[in-house]
Amino acid sequence: MKSNTSLSIVEKSNKQRPDMFMMYLEAFAKVLKRVIDSDQTIQTAKLSDRKQIVLYGVKMMNLHEDKKQDSEQLIKKLNQMEFVKAAMSTLSPDELENIFPIEKTYDGKRYGIKDYLFVRKELDKIGRDIKIGDRLERLLWDFMNPDLRTFNVINLSIFSDIRRSQGQKGIMEEFMEEKGIYGYTLLEGEGRKKYLKDNKTGEITEVRKKTPRYLNLVK
Predict the structure, then answer these.
(1) Are strands 194-198 and 204-206 parallel, antiparallel or unpaired?
(2) 8-state DSSP, 91
(3) Does residue 38 sit in helix, strand or coil?
(4) Nearest to 32 by CA among 86, 73, 72, 95
């Protein structure tokens, strides 16, 4: 019996995925130019422009490639993030939530973690329609939203990287040592060899990859 099934070859599309970082960067630059051309500051710009600066700025910084950067580049990136935070501080809690909705989780009390109800209470303390202002730093740690959480972690990491580039300890390393907890620092040497430095003793040991059991040494 002959089969009526016919086969066809589906050609793989060569269409490249859009560069989301560049898209957000261009959108951010466009609204920033609009604010500058209107002779406004971040405090006096239209609400719609400030909200776009926050949205595009957060998305852009979260997608920025994390390559090795020197102190000057790190400070430049930090200044960009601080500008976005300055725009964020001019918004009210309701306006920020409109851009970045709070995660709908309600089991915080059961597990001893922050949840939607906790964040709502913190926002109510500020006032739903009151400018966030200098309460932003605390709010960013309490606000349960993946975009803002990532943005905040990157911001803290840059602070630490700047300190390390200046010969100081990172923020988390310093905090842990104050609590009597000493960890290890991963270093990279010539030939891309990796080393672990004991932050308490200063001892450095080479990181050796374990040879899989299925690879036998031929003598």
Answers:
(1) antiparallel
(2) S
(3) coil
(4) 86
Lowest mean pLDDT among 49-53, 96-100, 120-124: 120-124
Q: Which residues pair with 164 in a beta bridge?
A: none
HSE-CB at 94 with a 13 A cutoff on CA atoms is 6
Look up the pTM and report it: 0.72
Measured in whole angstroms, the distance separating CA 13 from the mean position of its chain's CA atoms is 32
Question: How is the chain split into domains, by residue range?
Answer: 20-181, 183-219
Q: Are 53 and 35 spatial neighbours (Cβ–Cβ below 8 Å)?
A: yes
- Residue from 19, 16, 20, 47 nearest 31 by CA: 47
Question: At 207, is the secondary structure helix, strand, or coil?
Answer: coil
Residue-level length of the chain: 219
Distances in whole angstroms, Cα of residue 30 to Cα of each of 19, 37, 76, 118: 17, 11, 19, 36
Query: Which tens digits make up the pLDDT trace of 126-178?
Result: 998 999 999 999 999 999 999 999 999 999 888 888 887 777 666 566 656 55
